[in-house]
Amino acid sequence: MSLSLNEYLRYGRQLIVPEFGLQGQISLKESRVLVVGAGGLGCPALQYLVGAGFGTVGIVDHDTVDMSNLHRQTLHTTETVGMLKCESAKLQLAKLNPLVQINTHPVALSQDNSFGIFEQYDIVLDCTDTPATRYLINDTAVLLGLTIISGSGLKTEGQLSILNFNNTGPCYRCFYPTPPPPSSVTACSDGGVLGPIIGIMGVMMALEAIKVVNAECAIPKRET
Asked: What would the 3-class secondary structure string for the chain be?
């Protein structure tokens, strides 16, 4: 696979990064990434995945855009309130980079459909906020041998994990074998979150996806 002149012009600034280069860009073009959740984490992650030039980007989300989402879910606008989040996101992402194939899956992820969706992709970003969905994403990805990039954010803090890396690293159940009681989990709607916190985590998830796809594209270690 090669790059077109349009792609050279679009991705030129990352092509000249020594740890990335032409092969790094081609690897992105050949890769298919699935983002589960087009909310606070998913929106910034999607913007940078599509901007970077992943060949195929899938979006799973059955929810609709609400006015309360707009302070942190930056792909959605006042005009798209009431629209399916995956379709609202696709609308903006297609404008950002028409060279990327964007697939939407406007369904609630379940045991009945997760395998059929996940097997179309090479890497999964877990941008959800409910334990049950996180376990479903984990179990499906592990069965298919997919790396999971998992993020979260609440109040003024965020977390990021790389799970089942290359189908050899620890997975979510390795750390938390059983789901916690629902009453012990604080949702964003209850605890709140600052928009930039969740935005930073989403961007970091996109960066980790680039690094997972390109094993050689590592941030150099600082000299001590």
From this structure: CCCCHHHHHHCHHHHCCCCCHHHHHHHHHCCEEEEECCCCCHHHHHHHHHHHCCCEEEEECCCECCHHHCCCCCCCCHHHCCCEHHHHHHHHHHHHCCCCEEEEECCCCCCCCHHHHHCCCCEEEECCCCHHHHHHHHHHHHHHCCEEEEEEEEECEEEEEEECHHHCCCCHHHHCCCCCCHHHCCCHHHHCECHHHHHHHHHHHHHHHHHHHCCCCCCCCCCC
pLDDT at 184: 61
pLDDT of residue 16: 95
pLDDT at 103: 99
Q: How far is CA 209 from the centre of its chain?
A: 8
Looking at the 3D structure of the chain, how many domains does it have? 1
Provide the residue range defining the domain that includes 193: 17-213
Beta strand 147-154 with 123-126 is parallel
List the CATH number of the domain containing 128.
3.40.50.720
pTM: 0.92
Q: Could you tell me if 44 and 202 are in contact, meaning their C-beta atoms sit under 8 angstroms apart?
A: yes
- Average pLDDT of span 150-172: 92
**What value does the mean pLDDT of the chain take?**
92
